[in-house]
């Protein structure tokens, strides 16, 4: 009878250890997913910043083109 109780206790201890191990692995995966999401957010923020800078360049070129057009119109008298 004692042997049966000892076996059940060992079985329960093993199952608890396996459950703890599973939960730790699940936590590790969750942490990795969070890190991946943080990297994706950072990448998106950098892409957004790059697009803003490109927009500024386009706006500056557009303004330069307007000024150039005005100068040419004044020069050629149109």
Automatic annotation (TrEMBL):
Protein name: Uncharacterized protein
